[in-house]
């Protein structure tokens, strides 16, 4: 794939008038819907419309029935794409936690899946926990993350242990603080 250096792009953009630059941006937004989503998210950061679109993509992957192949790359791409178009940290954490909730609900509804499934969901859970801590969103997501950990305890392939370990590594100190109050 061809790749331009930022300095080359900057040089090109510096030679454009304001009107030409605006036209270039509008043309990109017209050609590439993801750019429109980016601007929508920037202009209306608390609007959940773009988040809803990506949550729907994830939800649709879990509409399969046991025995059908879950398309993990589609779920991961939805999280990644949304993270690229949004700068709303709470919504970015939301899409990750939502994905894990879908995964836990799926296995509780349909029974034991496979090791790849549990590894993928635990990996997204860890990504979510790390993001939540890094962005100081613990108060907003603590209860949901705790519920995920607790509801996964009877799930096989060591998934429940993994979820408990991850929760304790990232948010366990929050439970200890609540006990002290």
Q: What attributes does this structure have?
A:
single chain, 181 residues, mainly alpha
Please state the overall shape, judged from the principal axes of the Cα atoms: elongated
- In round numbers, the mean pLDDT is 92
Helical fraction equals over 70%
Low-confidence stretches: none
First CA to last CA: what distance?
56 Å
Total discrete domains: 1
Give me the Rg, rounded: 20 Å
The chain-level structural class is mainly alpha
Strand content: under 5%
Query: Helix and strand string, N-terminal first?
Result: HHHHHHHHH
Query: How would you characterize the largest beta sheet?
Result: none
The total of beta strands comes to 0
Number of helices: 9
Task: Describe this protein's structure.
By secondary structure, the protein is mainly α. It has one domain. The chain contains 9 helices and no strands. Helix 6 packs parallel to helix 8. It starts with 5 loop residues before the first helix and ends with a helix.
Helix and strand layout, with pairings?
Layout: H1 6-14, H2 18-31, H3 33-43, H4 49-61, H5 72-85, H6 89-110, H7 115-134, H8 138-151, H9 159-180
Helix pairs in contact: 2-3, 4-5, 4-6, 5-6, 6-7, 6-8, 7-9, 8-9
Can you describe this structure in just a few lines?
By secondary structure, the protein is mainly alpha-helical.
